[in-house]
Design goal:
The protein is mostly helical and 377 residues long. The chain has 13 helices and nine strands. Helix 10 packs across helix 13.
Length: 377
């Protein structure tokens, strides 16, 4: 800065105190006189004169400093925090949050893997070929791409409420059965095992008729003109009990499947936190953990799933009618051997494994979007 005699005056900058001063002119600027507003500029009082006499206030100081912000690297200001677009929806009721999150997770996951579900169903009953490639080619020649998504609308209608009920029951039961830190366990087995089985049974009882309608629409092409037509014709042919054909093997199959699925998911999440010393689990990690849990549970219970599909189809196209799940398992084993009980396991895992991972990932993501209070957003 130039003084009255045209000579350069000394300037001193103290980083710790954030004070700028001219020893000759008495120019003084201190952060103690500043008011910093995160949303706006930096306002300060700049005074000029000899120290001790109060000095003179520069008339343009407020105008200039209003548009001046000092970089954080020099310790003289603060940078604005960069915030990305974050979608938050306020739902105060925790039960409703779980129901909505579960419904969204089920709908998204089933739609993504709908083609694999269609191929898997055809392979189980042997209606369009005996290999994944053969079934795919037959579907494409007969119905095109739409054939791969046949029955998906019914599937989404079934899975969305089913998953919502399932996750709600699981969280509720698991919370009530879990002991607090320092307390004795309430059960000799993991609470998530019982909670998962309870969740599976409840959701199956509520949504089983839609599962049967979806299977009939997928297999019996050209017989029904839609969901309502299939519902009416099935009632006329077999009565209300026909809507629950195959329920016993479904319940027998869903108990070990849901129990192992949720127990494996809960156990893997706890192991991840313990190994990596992280409380928060990212989306990719959740996807992998959920997929691993789905692989374990689907492989263990697949024979019961095959028996259930055969019982649901019934006497369609001259197929054998089975008395019960044991009869179905025995007949399949006698006719096709041990391989018949695992027919379609490959595409089943290709469908169930990512479906489980996507479902858990969407559920955890939705819980972050759906918040209890506005300040959480």
């Amino acid at each position: 800065m130039m003084g009255g005699r045209g000579e350069m005056k000394s300037l001193s900058l103290k980083k710790g105190s954030r004070t700028l001063s001219d020893s000759h002119l008495g120019l003084h600027w201190s952060n103690q006189d500043c008011n910093f507003h995160p949303g706006g500029g930096l306002f300060a009082s700049v005074q000029m004169g000899n120290e001790g006499n109060g000095g003179l206030k520069l008339p343009c100081a407020d105008f200039l400093l209003k548009y001046v912000s000092l970089p954080e690297e020099n310790g003289l200001g603060k940078k604005k925090k960069k915030r990305g677009l974050k979608l938050k929806i306020k739902i105060p009721n925790p039960s409703l949050r779980r129901l909505v999150s579960g419904g969204i997770a089920g709908a998204v996951s089933r739609t993504v893997v709908a083609p694999l579900e269609t191929i898997r169903t055809h392979l189980m009953v042997g209606s369009s070929g005996h290999s994944t490639t053969e079934v795919f080619n037959n579907i494409m020649q007969t119905d095109g791409w739409k054939g791969l998504f046949r029955g998906n609308f019914v599937n989404v209608i079934r899975v969305a409420p089913s998953k919502a009920i399932e996750l709600f029951v699981y969280d509720t039961v698991n919370k009530n059965l879990s002991s607090k830190p320092g307390e004795q366990p309430k059960l000799p087995i993991p609470p998530s095992l019982v909670a998962g089985a309870s969740a599976g049974v409840t959701s199956t009882l509520v949504t089983y008729p839609l599962e049967l309608l979806k299977t009939r629409l997928t297999i019996q092409t050209g017989v029904y003109n839609g969901l309502l037509d299939a519902f009416v014709k099935i009632l006329q042919e077999g009565g209300p009990g026909e809507l629950y054909r195959g329920l016993a093997p479904s319940l027998i199959g869903v108990i070990p499947y849901a129990a192992t699925n949720y127990c494996a998911y809960d156990t893997l999440r706890k192991a991840y936190r313990k190994v990596f010393k992280e409380e928060k689990i990212g989306n990719i990690e959740t996807l992998l953990i959920g997929s691993a849990a789905g692989a374990i549970s689907s492989t263990a219970t697949f024979p019961l799933e095959v028996a259930r599909k055969h019982m649901q189809v019934g006497a369609v196209s001259g197929r054998q009618v089975y008395k019960n799940v044991l009869h179905a398992l025995a007949c399949i084993l006698e006719r096709d051997g041990i391989g018949g009980l695992y027919k379609g396991l490959g595409p089943s895992c290709l469908k169930l494994v990512p479906a489980a991972g996507i479902s858990f990932m969407c559920y955890e993501a939705c819980k972050k979007i759906l918040v209890e209070k506005e300040e959480d957003a």
